[in-house]
Amino acid sequence: MAFAFIKHDTKIDFIGKRHIAYAISILLLLVGLGSALWGNGLRMGIDFAGGVIVQVQFAQPVEDEVLKKSLDIPELPGISTQRFGEGARDYLLRFSSAENTDAAALRTSVLAALAKAFPGNDVEIQRLEMVGPKVGDDLTNKALGALYYATLLIAVYISGRFEQRWMAGVAMAAVLWGGMYLAGLTGLGMGWLVLVALGITLVVCFVLKLNFALGALVGLIHDVFITVGLLSLMNVEIDLNVMAALLTLVGYSLNDTIIVYDRLRENLRAAPKQPLASLINRSVNQTLSRTILTSGTTFVATLALYLLGGGVIHDFALTMLIGVFVGTASSIYVSSAVLLALGDTEFYVHQQERPVYEKPGEHGIV
Predict the structure, then answer these.
(1) Which domain holds residue 88?
(2) How many CA atoms does the CB half-sphere of 51 hold within 13 Å?
(3) Considering the entire predicted model, what is its pTM?
(4) Are residues 289 and 224 in the same domain?
């Protein structure tokens, strides 16, 4: 007897409750946007902004404000401190620095300032990282480019798999790839380039009626924007670990969406006369056990990393925790709802039909 966490004949009306999900998503998007533009902003780590990060450990606990005041010296411009771990003994120190600053000189300056401010309290530098401003800009451009091109290739894959329009997807990718290259020659920042390219990608999918691809893209953008907005609200630093988590979430969210799409395709063939909303509900309910088990185990594993993994992996695990929850919800209420808004059962049944080619002379006519 097979194990089933949830019965396969559940009949939860997910699509009927989609407007509640819309309201929650819009609220989260607005809160995140407000935080990014007028609140905490996007706190970029030294990987992208450039600068120096030093992890220090004291023999005895020290106060945050006392530590910051003691390091407010010309040799360490723009200093900021952050408690790291438990016990007020471990701190992360961040400050801006010229690109040609010597690591040994920085280490000496930090140790001298700390020894002067806290005599008798031994301190040890456990980590020192330096990133110049040019390297930071380069990493920023590559990270944004990776997010965009991953999204674009996903659109091509979805177009071919679920809509049998590989050529349309490839042509769209080629045009947008070339457009990104030409737009880059104008000197426009990579962030703006990616936003413009994403907008064009969505418009092209809409015009070509690549609804499955459009639904997947809207879901991915929804997940990334909400996750980044909540990270801004919580004042989490965006570094390479967080960017890796965002790229992981793009693949994770897509995987869940494809499972629902695949079951919907089967139901379209089995019941081509039923309303699309009913078919989507059936597909989501039939895959619900798999979705909860997969998302639940991922959530538990990520929660363990968040609670026990230490400060280095803390932000990565937090990003994954948010993204797993948001990505699972978007597969049901965003990606599938786009299909419902842009077509009906007859339209999608027709999309699944493959052209039939006759061999020359098959019916006696050459």
Answers:
(1) 51-131
(2) 19
(3) 0.79
(4) yes
